[in-house]
Amino acid sequence: MGAMEWSGGQAERPGRGRRVLVVGGGIAGLGAAQRLRAHPAFSQLRVLEATDRAGGRIRSERGFGGVLELGAHWIHGPSRGNPVFELAAEHRLLREKDLSEENQRMETGGHVGLPSVTYASSGVSVSRELVVETASLFHSLIDQAREFVRGAAAPAPSVGEYVRGALRALAAGWTDREDARRLRLALMHNFLNVECCVSGTHSMDLVALAPFGEYTVLPGLDCTFPGGYQGLTNHIMASLPEDMIIFNKPVKTIHWNGSFQEAASPGETFPVLVECEDGGCFPAHHVIVTVPLGFLKEHVDTFFEPPLPTEKADAIRKLGFGTNNKIFLEFEEPFWEPGCQHIQVVWEDMSPLEDVASQLQDVWFKKLIGFWVLPSFESVHVLCGFIAGLESEFMETLTDEEVLLSLTQVLRRVTGNARLPAPRSVLRSRWHSAPYTRGSYSYVAVGSTGEDIDRLARPLPEDGAEAQLQILFAGEATHRTFYSTTHGALLSGWREADRLIALQDPQAQLPGPQL
Ligand SMILES: Cc1cc2nc3c(=O)[nH]c(=O)nc-3n(C[C@H](O)[C@H](O)[C@H](O)COP(=O)(O)OP(=O)(O)OC[C@H]3O[C@@H](n4cnc5c(N)ncnc54)[C@H](O)[C@@H]3O)c2cc1C
Asked: pTM to 2 decimals?
């Protein structure tokens, strides 16, 4: 094993305390570090981050003359009680209207708002009436899918199969003409693809039905950060000593249940030793692991030594973690109407009731659900497309030119305007290829339950016979009701920090909220 690396610095305060390492500098890791830093028992604290930046899947970049969110986009359920909303409000990172009581009270049921315009692949726009009616039917089916959490036996293994089953029964009673019926089903297909983006999955057939309703939607109309989501993680960073986070420090293996020593602390033993890819080693009393579930899935056999208990390793394998990416297109002139916020793209040859076997390279772009018009760009006009699943992962393998060409053809076709000017440039996320993320966010997959989230979150060692709380687990995938969100991630980081504080100081008054 390599050299022991634990040097003093601003991050160290005098006196001996518990030595804690946080692995991962996303919002969960930063939140945990900030909470621990406020307690005197945790004077020796470091965050090891694999990449050269903090924020993880919160990633705002300057581009096209504005801010582009490559990762998290909205605060889901921005209302009092949502810690991300509260922090963002405290740091004045939101628009006035998003802070209003009216916005906070809005109940969206977690459904994506209606598009401003819907284009179909034959080059026509779809009537508003049909879109509203179909969206309302789709949302009622999704709401019904959430009800099985209350105990009624789930009639299908997955959300997708449940929705398609209900739809097949309904469609049998439709008296439309064939082309109208096709369009209705094509719209449904698009809404299912939207739901794939929401759940971060290839297909809703992979998302377990019975626990689907455990995910909790908070009140509030989803809002964005005008200056970038990363303003939030930057604020947390600014409250930490500069040398607390060590960048470009990927962790290779976490050795636990051991008795490790270092020359600088004679006589002291540590139960955990964190070994980095560059050979550096950090002995510690406690480690909070916040790496994404996608990374854990890939490295579950080598990241922990001794290996994880079978139940926990199985939870990692069974829970779902898929891909949702964004594609930003920059235009010289908008082809959309003023005030248009969201363009939906529907393929009339697609139906949730039929399986079409095709090569990804021929059809990947049909998974793209449409585009959001980004506000507040000055001289350019920017659309943000969303695409989930294997098609999204395939898109990551293409060149910018290939993506730009395909999407130009899509837009020309659906608008019926063969001369529509091509976008000036393209920029996109590639979350599946990112080695320290390997996808976008988690979901409860067929074959797993919410219990698996709790199993993943349980600290090690589980029996408590050895030194307590050697490895703790945080990150969005460890929050049973808010998985896949920034607020779930932040709350999980706070939860694990509080767990350590309570071990050290059982009388400690822990701050809320504990959602
Ligand atoms: C495209 C996209 C859109 C999204 N949209 C929204 C949204 O609108 N609203 C919302 O609430 N949420 C959204 N999310 C989800 C949200 O971004 C995440 O749930 C949240 O940011 C996760 O935070 P985290 O701290 O758990 O993980 P991360 O932010 O992934 O942090 C984990 C950190 O661990 C580091 N790491 C990994 N492996 C190692 C290693 N071996 N050693 C050291 N460090 C390591 C990583 O580099 C990373 O910095 C979106 C995500 C994506 C990808």
From this structure: 0.97
